[in-house]
From TrEMBL:
Residue ranges of every copy of the Response regulatory domain listed in the record: 6-122
Record keywords: DNA-binding, Phosphoprotein, Transcription, Transcription regulation
Any GO MF annotation of the entry: DNA binding
Domain of life: Bacteria
PANTHER family, sorted: TRANSCRIPTIONAL REGULATORY PROTEIN NARL-RELATED, TWO-COMPONENT RESPONSE REGULATOR
Record carries keyword Nuclease: no
Single biological process term from Gene Ontology: phosphorelay signal transduction system
Name recorded for this polypeptide: Oxygen regulatory protein NreC
Domain HTH luxR-type residue range list: 148-213
Gene responsible for this protein: nreC_1
Species name: Streptomyces griseorubiginosus
TM region positions: none
Lineage, top ranks: Bacteria, Bacillati, Actinomycetota, Actinomycetes, Kitasatosporales
CDD domains named among the record's database cross-references: LuxR_C_like, REC_NarL-like
Length: 217
C-alpha cells in the first residue's frame, strides 16, 4: 500500500483543528503530521517537516492563510495547498488560486467535501465546492466578456504582511523580527502604505485591514 498523504493543518481555533483532524484521520490514505495556530507557524512547520499537503484557514494571526499559501508556493513548489474557510467569497477564491492553492473548501461542508478535496489536490487536480462552481465560472466569464480585469491588488504582498502585523498591534521591532527585515525597512513600507492608501495613522490602517479581511474585527 502507498504511504498515506502527510497533512499539515493550520487554524487558530483548536476545536476546529481537532474536528478537521478527526475527519481526515478517519481515512486510511490521509494522516495529520503537524498542526499550526497561525500562518507563520504553518510555513515554519512545512519547511521543517515532511508534508505533502497543507490545509490552511484564511483568517489567522501574524500571517493569513493566503499569505502563507503564497510563501509556501514560493518555497515549496511541490507542496499541495487547500484553503479551508468559513468565507463564501468570490474574491478570496480567486486570491486563493493566485496564491497557489489547489482548492477552496467551506468549513460548513467540510465533513462532505474535505476528504475529496484532499485527494484531488494530491492528484494535482483543482477542487471548488460544488455550490460555488456555476456562480464563480459565470462571474469570471461575464468579466471576460465585458473586458473587465479581476480586481488588482491595492498593496504589494510585503506591504500586506506589514499591514496585517501593524493592525494586530506589533511594534516595528517585532515586525522586523517576524519578517526578517530591518526596522528601517518596516518603517519605509509603513510610510508607503500610509501614502498609497491616503491614511495617516495605525487606527486607519487597522480599519482598512479589517475591511480587507486580514484581521477579525
Amino acid at each position: 500500500m502507498a504511504e498515506p498523504t502527510r497533512v499539515l493543518l493550520a487554524d487558530d481555533h483548536t476545536l476546529v483543528r481537532r474536528g478537521v483532524r478527526l475527519i481526515l484521520e478517519g481515512e486510511p490514505d490521509l494522516t495529520v503530521v503537524a498542526e499550526a495556530g497561525d500562518g507563520a507557524e504553518a510555513v515554519e512547520l512545512a519547511r521543517a517537516r515532511e508534508v505533502d499537503l497543507a490545509v490552511l484557514d484564511i483568517a489567522m494571526p501574524r500571517m493569513t492563510g493566503l499569505q502563507a499559501a503564497r510563501e509556501l508556493s514560493r518555497r515549496l513548489p511541490d507542496l499541495r495547498i487547500l484553503i479551508l474557510t468559513m468565507y463564501d467569497n468570490e474574491q478570496y477564491f480567486f486570491e486563493a488560486l493566485k496564491a497557489g492553492a489547489s482548492g477552496y473548501v467551506l468549513k460548513s461542508v467540510a465533513d462532505r467535501d474535505l476528504v475529496e478535496a484532499c485527494r484531488a489536490a494530491v492528484r494535482d487536480e483543482s477542487f471548488v465546492y460544488p455550490g460555488a462552481e456555476r456562480a464563480l465560472v459565470r462571474s469570471y466569464l461575464d468579466r471576460l466578456h465585458r473586458g473587465v480585469d479581476l480586481p488588482a491588488r491595492a498593496v504589494t504582498e510585503r506591504e500586506e504582511e506589514i499591514l496585517k502585523l501593524v493592525a494586530e498591534g506589533h511594534t516595528t521591532k517585532e515586525i522586523g523580527e517576524l519578517l526578517f527585515i530591518s526596522a528601517k525597512t518596516v518603517e519605509r513600507h509603513r510610510a508607503n502604505l500610509l501614502a498609497k492608501l491616503g491614511m495617516k495613522d495605525r487606527l486607519e490602517l487597522t480599519r482598512y485591514a479589517i475591511r480587507a479581511g486580514l484581521i477579525d474585527p
